[in-house]
Amino acid sequence: MIKKTATGPxxxxxxxxxxxxxxxxxxxxxxxxxxxxxxxxLNLFQAIADQAGVAVLNARLYDESRRQARVxxxxxxxxxxxxxxxxxxxxxxxxxKQIQDALQVDAVALALVDHESQEMEYEAVIRHGxxxxxxxxxKRFPLGKGIIxxxxxxxQRALIPDVSEDPRYDPEFSIYPEFTPTAIACAPVRLRGDxxxxxxxxxxxxxxxxxxxxxxxxxxxxAGSSIQNARLFEELQVAHNRYHD
Length: 245
Description:
Elements: E1 11-19, E2 22-31, H1 39-82, H2 88-103, E3 107-114, E4 119-127, E5 130-131, E6 140-142, H3 146-154, E7 158-160, E8 183-191, E9 194-203, H4 212-244
Antiparallel strand pairs: 1-2, 3-4, 3-9, 4-5, 4-6, 7-8, 8-9
Helix pairs in contact: 1-2, 1-4, 2-4
């Protein structure tokens, strides 16, 4: 008769991995022989776990510093690009291009609010690195409809990791109604405290990184004054042409 023996570890010690008195994990050491691990092994393993906690803390701090550097670089480049032109169409395209480059998304759309009619209108869109002209460009829709309309009305940013599970998404109010995105990040465009529009970044595959909403919100906040300045310049040009005529 063959005697069956249990497989797997026979001795185990486990210790906590702490970072500034906060639990970040548990480390486990096992041995195939019974009674092979002693109190001495536990103390040594705990010392190793303490050093691991310091390494985890350093790695987190390093990742945080790199994340902040990426965000600040994206904002600085966006501010420079927005001020490179005073023509509204070019300003809008520069804004969307900076967002697309920073977030590596498939498409970016911007809609502005008409407060008198309580409607929004898609003013600009960029997809795969170049401006395109979808049928929805110039389309007006009620404020509050779709994700971009909801963001503008409620003055809140939004990150939707799975569009299919969000009731706010409606293809009728999407910039590309013929395509269904997988994820959308959206932020309001503000000017002196008022929301004048919203920008949405669209992914048709994949997911957003942890910094996506922060970068999008930062660029959107910078965009408000650039859009207003370009609008004023266009109005000035129209007035100048009328005076010339």
